[in-house]
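Practice problem: predict the structure.
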Amino acid sequence: MVMRRLGMLLKLALVLLPVAALKALAMARGWEVLEPTPLFAGLITSNVFLIGFLFNGVLVDYKESEKCPAQLAEILLSLVAELQALGWARPEAEPAAALATVAQLGQGFLGWFQGTTRADELLDRIDRLNAELAQLRHSCESPCMARLLQELAALRGLLLRMETIRSIPFVPTVYWLSATSTTLLCAGLVLTHMEDWVEIFFYLGSIAFLMVFILLMIWDLDNPFGHGEFSSCENISLAPLERTLPRITHPRDHEG
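Answer:
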């Protein structure tokens, strides 16, 4: 995680260093043709508004995504518990195949977070589990089968929701507007006349740093499931799923 945060700072430096170099060139060549005016403050305000709109929208999805690993663990554990209870009550049902598929789903979801398993593969495993549950209908009472199918539907819906959050950015047009506004703001800071290095360091450094850094952070937050991407550092915690994975992949065997 520390290396990923350092990577974020490296990306920030790669953006800000050219801005600082252009400012030094503008001072040397006399290209500082703009004067500080209230209109420039208006440009900063509009950029802050766009970034705030992005941040609020992305944060909603991020907060929802934080619950996903725990919800996944809960659903998978419920499937394991129901199948184990069926095996104890009806030994002839033989739910071992379904339990093995649930264990593969647990590992598969962890792989999905880490970028090694595709959503289509998980959907195929869910369909396989559905077929295995169908084979248990004659040995399973209707309320128990209904609970199993409900958990399976919840698992499928959660996967589709997570895949949507990962693959679809939040309002791409606003991203383009915010990036364009930040670029114009940095260009204005480069071309604005400043008296001394203290002003240059404070206004150019602080404003450009904050705007670019917040924009990069929002882009990172927009995909809270970027565990498989080295450049992504603000990802949700997988601890709830990782802690319960041994119970899912190696459930205890008891005789009824």
